[in-house]
Each structure stands twice: as structure tokens, then as C-alpha cells.
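Hi R.,

Here's the chain you asked about this morning:
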Amino acid sequence: MSKDRNLETARLQKEIGSYIGLGKDSLVFNFDTKGKRARLHLITINPNHSQSFLFHATTGSDKVDALREMLEYVKTYKERTSSYTVQWSARGENTLQTSYFRAKNVLEALDKLFYDRDPNSITVFSVNLNPIT
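And the predicted structure, written out as C-alpha cells:
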């Protein structure tokens, strides 16, 4: 008997959320299928300022394979990435926001901040590499 792909998808999404420490209301699994490949963009939703950011992107032979790749990433990403603090403000707002990203470098952290939005919609005031703890 073959496995139910939807059950496997739900199980993997739940496991990914538990590794990250976020619930289903704070994660969006955005799939883009082109040809024989599926690309997964895992998006986090910040409830404090109602903004979404890219957590990480993976590619697989199908949706389940892309989810498996994401699960492997979240199991070890803290050992392979650095922590960055970004202070920013949305255009037209006078509130300074603070967001935290795990990334290989400053450019990747900023790419995650600007993912799927107009670059002119946010003003970045600072990006800091956090100390290793």
C-alpha cells in the first residue's frame, strides 16, 4: 500500500515547525513547481509587526522531497549559519522594528528581509552580527 502524500506532507511540516519552534500560524510553506523540480520557500510570519520573511529555500524532485531537504536544513542550520539582528522601518511608519535572521552572511540576511517585497518599502538602519553564544 502506498503512503498518503498529504499525510507525509503534513507530518514533515509539523516536524519542521517543531525544530524551528514556531507553530502553524507562523509558517507558510510556499511551493513552486517547475518541470520536474519543486522549490520550497519557507516563510515565517512575525506576530509582533505582522511581516513575513524568508526563513530558507530548498529544492527537491517533488514537494515531499523539498520538505525532506528543509527538514535536514532545520536540524543543523544553527551550526552552519550566523545570527544577525536587523533594525528597520516600513516606509511611512515611524516605528523602528528589530528582526533576527540566521544566514551565511550579511547579504543573505538582507535577502531574507527583502524577500517578496519592494526594496523601497523598507528602510534598513543597521545590520549586526550577533556574538556567538
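The chain has a mean pLDDT of 92.

Let me know if you need anything else.
M.
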